[in-house]
C-alpha cells in the first residue's frame, strides 16, 4: 500500500483535542466509523486501506481484531466524553470477514461506551460473497439497521476486469436475504464506466438493483488510482483508460433509470428512495462530527481532522501501548473550512446557500449571454459573485429557480462538471 | 625606443589580419597556438580559447565579439614584427561586423577543416575579404585527423581562391604543426598598412564592447594620423565628442600606451556606458583639427527579425526589462519596446539582426539573468503601402493593416548553400517551396556544390535551417545576406479561439501558405488546449474570412466521484491542486488555456525530426 505522505501536524500521543473542537461534540449529529482492513482478495482497482491474509504478519489476526477496534472506541469515549451516537458505519475492506458476532460486539461496545440515539442508523458494508441468511439475521437482531452491498455490476465481464469474485446471482440473493432479515435500508454500490462495459451491461446492472428492492444506490465512475494493479494494466496497455465521455453517458443512464424507479439524487454519486438517504454519509458532507475507528480511519471533530496509522500492526501497537493511534492531523483554517463547505455542500441536492459564497470573487470569467460578447478581455477583469452565478445558470450548470431562491443546486450537467463549478465559485 | 612600442611602430613591420573560419574549424585553437608560439602568453596562464571571453562563447564554440591582439613576432629574417590578429564573429547575422573587421585588415588567414572542406559562411566571408582586396593565406587545419583529406580540400580551396594547391598551408592548430610556417607566411604575404601619419586622425571602429568596470571599450584601427591619450575625440557618424581616458593595445591583456599611430590596432576608453555612443563602422577623429571626411562604409545596425519575448513567470517582467537594458549596453543592434499580449502577458517586442542574434540574446537573458522565457514566432520587417500612397513599416503582425493595401514589400536575401551533390535535388525542392529563385550553381569539387538563391528572409527565419539540415543529414551549410526587398502577396492569418484572436499566433504569410499555416496551428491547438465546459471552435482567418476550423468538444465530465468515506482532506487537497492549476491558466475570452499550451504551440518542434 502506498502510504499517505506525512502532512498536517503531529497529533498529541494522548489523543487530546483542543477545547474549541471538543465544545462542538453533542451540538450536532455525532457518528462513528469503524474500518475493517481485511479482504479475501484485493480487487485490482482498489486503493483502500485493506489487507489480505497473506499481506498481514502474525500479530494481527482477523478473529481478534474486533477487540482492537473496541479498544479504540473506549479510547474515543475518554476523549470526547459522553454523547449519543446518531450513526454508525462499518466499512472496509470487507467488514463481514470479522463475522457477525464480532460486528455485534463492536456495536455493543459503542452502546456501552456512548449509547445509541433513538432511531440511530447502523450500517455495515458487505461483500455479496461473504454473507448468508444466518449472518444477516444475527446482524439485524444485533442492532444493524442498514446494509450496503458492493454489487458493482451485473455483467460478469465487467466483474472480471474489476477482479470481483461474486456473480450477479450472488448479489441478487444477498440483497433478497438482507430484505428477508428485515434490514430497514439496503443499498447497492455500482461502478460505472469500467473499460469494456457496454450500455447493455449497465442496463442489466440497473435492472438488478432496481428489481432487487434496494432503497439506495451509489454509482461511482471507475477511477484508475495510481499504484493499483489496474493502473499498471492500463499503463501496459492491457486495458484502455476509462473514458470520461463514456462515464458521463453512463452517469446519465443511471440517473434516468433510477429517477424512473422513484429514486432521487441527493449527492452527486448517490440516489435514494424517499427516506433512504445514508445519514452517516450526509454527516460527513455536512462536516458534522465523527470518530473514525480503525487503521487509516479519518475523524473530524469541531474543525480538527485527523487520521490513524494505516498499517493494522502499527495501529494495534499504538492502542496496546495506551496511545492515540492518530498519525497526523490538521486544524482547519477558516479558508479551508469555507473551501470544504463549498466543495461538499455543492455536491448535494440540498445545495449550497449563496450566502455561503464570498461576496466578491475575482473571477476571470465574464458574463456572456446569447449573441453578445463582453468587451472586456480575459485579463482578469474582476467580476462579482453574482455574475459568476448568473453565468453558471446561463451555462445550465446550476438550477436558476433554486438560485433565485438563494441556493445553488447543480443541474445534471452541473453534477457532471461539479469540480469545475466548485473551482469557479472558489476563485 | 623599440619598434614594438605602441604609438611608435613603423607601419612597415605591422601586419593586420583576420582569421576566417567556420564554427569548429579551429579558429580559436589556432589563435591560442599563435599566442603561445609568439610568446605573448605565459604558458602557465594559457587556457583553452583564451580570447573568447564570454562563457557562452566558450561553450558554444563560437565567437560573438571580436577582439584584437597585438603579437610581437621575430621573423625568420630577424626583423621584429607586430602582428595584429583581429578576431571576427563567425556567423551570418554579423556580416556587417565581419566586414568592418576585415576592413581593418590587409590580409586574412582562411582556415578550413581538412576533413570537412569549406562551409557556406566561410565562403561568404572569404568573398567579403576578396571584395576588400585582402591578401588571403589559405590554411587547411586538423591535418592530424584520420578523416583529413588535405589533397582534396587543398584543390577545392585553390579553385575557389585561384591559387596553386601547393600554396595551401597544412597545419594542426591542436599540435602546433605548421604554425611557425603560417606566421612566416603572414609576414611574407600580407602587405603592411599604408596611411598618412601627418593627416588628421582617422580610425575605424571595428568593435565596441561594454565592460562593467571600464565602460565601453572601443576597438579601432588607425588609418591616418595618430590618436593619443587626453585627446578629445569625435565620432564622425554620431557627432559625439568624448574625452579619451585611455588608449592602449591588447597583448593579450590591455596595455595602456600614450597613443597609437598609422596602421596600429588598439582600444580606446572614453567612459561612455552604451555601445550606441561608439558604433561599429564609425570613424574616430580628433575633435580639434579633425578629419572632415569619414572612412566609408558606416551603416546603422538594422534589426531585420522581430519576436516577442515574454517571461514565463509574469512576475519576472521587471527583471527581463532590467536585463534587456543591461544587454543593450553591449549590443548596438538590439532594439526592444514593451508589448502586451493577451496570451502571454507583459513582455517586449525585440528586433534582432537575425535568427542567431535572437538566439544569443535569448540564451544570454536566460542564462545570465536566470529567466525562463517564451518567444513568439519570429517575423521580418515589412513595408506596406496603402491605397492612398502612405507607407507603414510593420514589425509585428498586430500592426498589419487589414484593408486598403496597395503593395507589400518583404526583405529578401541572397543565400548560399554548400552541400554534397547527392542532396542538390532535395535542397532545390526546399528552396522552391520557400519561394526561392535560383541564381546559380557551381561545383566546388566533384562532390560539393554551391547553390545560390534569392529567398524571402521570412522563409528563412521560419525553420528553414532545420529543414535544410534534416534534408542533408547535417551536411549543408547556409549563408545569406540581405539583398533588398521584393513585392509579395502577403496576408495576415489570425488564429481565433472561441471567436477571439490570439495575438501570439497571428502570422504574416504568403497567401498561398495561409491555409497550411492555419491548418497546422488549429490542429496543434486542438491537441494542446484542454476541453472546456463548452464547445470551443478554433479558427484560422484572413480578416473576417475563416479559412479553416477545428473544434474542441465540450467536456462532459469534470467531477471526482469518490469522497473516500471521511477522508475529506484528500479531496480538499486535490481541489487546492486543481485551483493552483487554474491559476496558471491564461484566459482567452472565456477559454482557459494552460501556459504550457501556448509554449508548446509556439515552439517550432513540428519540423521534421533530425
Overview of the structural elements:
- The complex is a heterodimer of chains A (427) and B (610).
- Chain A has 427 residues and is of the alpha/beta class.
- Helix content of chain A is 38%, strand content 18%.
- Chain A contains 16 helices and 14 strands.
- Chain A is globular.
- Chain A starts with 18 loop residues before the first helix and ends with a helix.
- Chain B contains 14 helices and 34 strands.
- Chain B is of the alpha+beta class and 610 residues long.
- Chain B has 5 domains: 9-187, P-loop containing nucleotide triphosphate hydrolases (Rossmann fold), CATH 3.40.50; 200-284, Beta Barrel (Elongation Factor Tu (Ef-tu), domain 3), CATH 2.40.30.10; 303-375, Alpha-Beta Plaits (2-Layer Sandwich); 381-487, 2-Layer Sandwich (Alpha-Beta Plaits), CATH 3.30.70; 489-600, Elongation factor 4, C-terminal domain (Alpha-Beta Plaits, 2-Layer Sandwich), CATH 3.30.70.2570.
- Chains A and B meet through helix 9, helix 10, strand 10, helix 12 and helix 16 of A and helix 13 and strand 33 of B.
- Chain A: Residues 1-21 are annotated as: Disordered.
- Chain A: Residues 24-264 form the Radical SAM core domain.
Largest sheet of chain B: 8 strands, antiparallel
Nearest-integer average pLDDT of chain A:
89
Q: For the CA atoms, what is the radius of gyration of chain A?
A: 22 Å
> In terms of per-residue confidence, which ranges of chain A show pLDDT below 50 for 5 or more consecutive residues?
1-6, 360-383
Low-confidence stretches of chain B: 54-66, 605-610
What topology, given as strand order, has the largest sheet of chain A? 7-8-6-5-4-3-2-1-9
Mean pLDDT across residues of chain B: 88
Kindly report the spatial arrangement of strands forming the biggest sheet of chain B: 11-10-16-7-8-15-12-13
Portion in beta strands of chain B: 25-35%
From the coordinates shown, what is the CATH architecture of the largest domain in chain A? Alpha-Beta Barrel
CATH architecture of the largest domain in chain B: 3-Layer(aba) Sandwich
Amino acid at each position: 500500500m502506498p502510504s499517505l505522505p506525512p502532512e498536517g501536524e503531529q497529533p498529541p500521543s494522548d489523543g487530546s483535542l483542543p477545547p474549541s473542537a471538543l465544545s462542538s461534540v453533542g451540538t450536532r449529529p455525532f457518528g462513528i466509523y469503524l474500518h475493517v482492513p481485511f479482504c479475501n482478495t484485493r480487487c485490482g482497482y482498489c486503493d483502500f486501506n485493506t489487507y489480505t491474509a497473506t499481506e498481514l504478519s502474525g500479530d494481527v489476526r482477523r478473529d481478534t481484531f474486533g477487540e482492537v477496534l473496541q479498544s479504540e472506541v473506549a479510547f474515543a469515549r475518554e476523549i470526547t466524553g459522553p454523547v449519543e451516537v446518531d450513526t454508525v458505519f462499518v466499512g472496509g475492506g470487507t467488514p463481514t470477514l470479522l463475522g457477525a458476532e464480532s460486528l455485534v460486539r463492536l456495536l455493543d461496545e459503542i452502546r456501552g461506551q456512548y449509547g445509541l440515539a433513538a432511531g440511530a442508523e447502523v450500517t455495515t458494508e458487505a461483500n455479496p460473497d461473504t454473507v448468508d441468511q444466518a449472518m444477516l439475521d444475527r446482524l439485524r437482531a444485533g442492532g444493524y439497521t442498514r446494509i450496503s452491498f458492493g454489487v458493482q455490476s451485473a455483467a460478469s465481464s465487467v466483474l472480471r476486469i474489476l477482479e470481483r469474485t461474486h456473480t450477479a446471482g450472488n448479489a441478487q440473493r444477498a440483497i433478497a436475504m438482507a430484505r428477508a432479515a428485515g434490514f430497514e435500508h439496503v443499498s447497492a454500490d455500482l461502478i460505472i464506466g469500467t473499460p469494456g462495459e457496454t450500455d447493455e451491461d449497465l442496463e442489466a446492472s440497473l435492472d438488478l438493483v432496481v428489481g432487487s428492492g434496494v432503497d439506495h444506490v451509489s454509482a461511482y465512475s471507475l477511477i484508475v488510482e495510481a499504484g493499483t494493479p489496474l493502473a499498471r494494466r492500463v499503463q501496459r496497455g492491457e486495458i484502455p483508460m476509462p473514458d470520461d465521455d463514456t462515464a458521463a453517458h453512463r452517469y446519465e443512464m443511471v440517473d434516468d433509470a433510477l429517477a424512473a424507479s422513484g429514486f432521487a439524487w441527493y449527492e452527486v454519486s448517490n440516489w435514494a428512495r424517499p427516506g433512504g438517504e445514508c445519514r452517516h454519509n450526509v454527516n460527513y458532507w455536512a462536516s458534522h462530527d465523527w470518530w473514525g475507528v480503525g487503521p487509516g480511519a479519518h475523524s473530524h471533530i469541531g474543525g480538527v481532522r485527523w487520521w490513524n496509522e494505516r498499517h493494522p500492526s502499527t495501529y494495534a501497537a499504538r492502542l496496546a501501548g495506551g496511545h492515540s493511534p492518530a498519525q497526523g492531523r490538521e486544524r482547519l483554517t477558516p479558508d479551508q473550512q469555507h473551501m470544504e463547505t463549498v466543495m461538499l455542500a455543492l455536491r448535494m441536492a440540498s445545495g449550497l446557500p449563496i450566502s455561503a459564497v464570498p461576496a466578491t470573487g475575482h473571477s476571470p470569467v465574464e458574463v456572456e449571454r446569447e449573441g453578445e460578447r463582453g468587451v472586456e478581455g480575459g485579463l482578469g477583469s474582476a467580476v462579482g459573485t453574482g455574475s459568476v452565478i448568473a453565468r453558471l445558470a446561463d451555462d445550465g450548470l446550476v438550477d436558476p429557480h433554486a438560485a433565485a431562491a438563494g441556493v445553488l443546486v447543480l443541474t445534471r450537467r452541473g453534477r457532471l462538471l461539479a469540480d469545475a463549478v466548485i473551482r469557479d465559485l472558489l476563485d | 625606443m623599440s619598434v614594438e612600442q605602441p604609438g611608435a611602430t613603423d607601419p612597415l613591420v605591422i601586419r593586420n589580419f583576420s582569421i576566417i573560419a567556420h564554427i569548429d574549424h579551429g579558429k580559436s585553437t589556432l589563435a591560442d597556438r599563435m599566442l603561445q608560439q609568439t610568446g605573448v602568453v605565459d604558458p602557465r596562464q594559457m587556457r583553452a580559447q583564451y580570447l573568447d571571453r564570454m562563457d557562452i562563447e566558450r561553450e558554444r564554440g563560437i565567437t560573438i565579439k571580436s577582439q584584437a591582439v597585438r603579437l610581437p613576432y621575430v621573423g625568420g629574417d630577424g626583423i621584429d614584427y607586430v602582428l595584429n590578429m583581429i578576431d571576427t564573429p563567425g556567423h551570418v547575422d554579423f556580416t556587417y561586423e565581419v566586414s568592418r573587421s576585415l576592413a581593418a585588415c590587409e590580409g586574412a588567414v582562411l582556415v578550413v577543416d581538412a576533413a570537412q572542406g569549406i562551409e557556406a559562411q566561410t565562403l561568404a566571408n572569404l568573398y567579403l575579404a576578396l571584395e576588400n582586396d585582402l591578401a588571403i593565406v589559405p590554411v587547411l587545419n586538423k591535418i592530424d585527423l584520420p578523416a583529413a583529406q588535405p589533397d582534396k580540400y587543398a584543390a577545392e580551396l585553390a579553385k575557389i581562391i585561384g591559387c596553386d594547391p601547393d600554396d595551401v598551408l597544412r597545419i594542426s592548430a591542436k599540435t602546433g604543426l605548421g604554425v611557425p610556417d603560417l606566421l612566416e607566411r603572414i609576414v611574407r604575404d600580407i602587405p603592411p598598412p599604408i596611411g598618412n601619419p601627418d593627416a588628421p586622425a582617422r580610425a575605424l571602429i571595428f568593435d565596441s564592447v561594454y565592460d562593467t568596470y571600464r565602460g565601453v571599450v572601443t576597438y579601432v584601427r588607425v588609418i591616418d594620423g595618430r590618436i593619443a591619450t587626453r585627446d578629445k575625440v569625435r565620432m564622425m557618424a554620431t557627432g559625439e565628442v568624448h574625452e579619451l581616458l585611455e588608449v592602449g593595445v591588447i597583448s593579450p591583456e590591455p596595455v595602456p600606451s600614450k597613443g597609437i599611430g598609422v596602421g596600429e590596432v588598439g582600444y580606446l576608453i572614453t567612459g561612455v556606458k552604451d555601445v550606441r555612443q561608439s558604433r561599429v563602422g564609425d570613424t574616430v577623429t580628433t575633435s580639434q583639427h579633425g578629419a572632415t571626411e569619414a572612412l566609408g562604409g558606416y551603416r546603422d545596425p538594422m534589426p531585420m527579425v522581430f519576436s516577442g519575448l515574454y517571461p514565463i513567470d509574469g512576475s519576472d517582467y521587471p527583471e527581463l526589462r532590467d536585463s534587456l537594458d543591461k544587454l543593450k549596453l553591449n549590443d548596438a543592434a538590439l532594439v526592444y519596446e514593451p508589448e502586451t499580449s493577451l496570451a502571454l502577458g507583459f513582455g517586449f517586442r525585440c528586433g534582432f539582426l537575425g535568427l542567431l542574434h535572437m538566439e544569443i540574446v535569448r540564451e544570454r537573458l536566460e542564462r545570465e539573468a536566470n529567466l525562463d522565457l517564451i518567444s513568439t514566432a519570429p517575423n521580418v520587417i515589412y513595408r506596406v503601402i496603402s491605397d492612398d500612397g502612405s507607407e507603414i513599416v510593420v514589425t509585428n503582425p498586430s500592426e498589419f493593416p487589414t484593408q486598403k493595401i496597395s503593395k507589400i514589400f518583404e526583405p529578401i536575401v541572397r543565400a548560399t548553400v554548400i552541400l554534397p551533390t547527392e542532396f542538390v535535388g532535395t535542397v532545390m525542392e526546399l528552396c522552391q517551396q520557400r519561394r526561392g529563385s535560383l541564381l546559380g550553381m557551381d561545383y566546388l569539387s566533384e562532390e560539393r556544390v554551391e547553390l545560390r538563391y534569392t529567398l524571402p528572409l521570412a522563409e528563412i527565419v521560419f525553420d528553414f535551417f532545420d529543414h535544410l539540415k534534416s534534408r542533408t543529414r547535417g551536411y549543408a551549410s547556409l549563408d545569406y545576406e540581405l539583398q533588398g526587398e521584393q513585392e509579395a502577396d502577403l496576408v495576415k492569418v489570425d488564429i481565433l479561439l472561441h471567436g477571439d484572436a490570439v495575438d501570439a499566433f497571428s502570422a504574416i504569410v504568403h497567401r498561398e501558405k495561409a491555409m497550411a499555416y492555419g491548418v497546422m496551428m488549429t490542429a496543434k491547438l486542438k491537441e494542446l488546449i484542454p476541453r472546456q465546459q463548452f464547445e470551443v471552435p478554433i479558427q484560422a482567418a484572413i480578416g473576417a474570412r475563416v479559412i479553416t476550423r477545428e473544434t474542441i468538444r465540450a467536456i462532459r465530465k469534470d467531477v471526482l466521484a469518490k469522497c473516500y468515506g471521511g477522508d475529506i482532506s484528500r479531496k480538499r487537497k486535490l481541489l487546492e491542486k486543481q485551483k493552483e492549476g487554474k491559476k496558471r491558466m491564461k484566459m482567452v475570452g472565456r477559454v482557459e488555456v494552460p501556459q504550457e499550451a501556448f509554449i508548446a504551440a509556439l515552439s517550432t518542434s513540428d519540423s521534421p525530426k533530425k
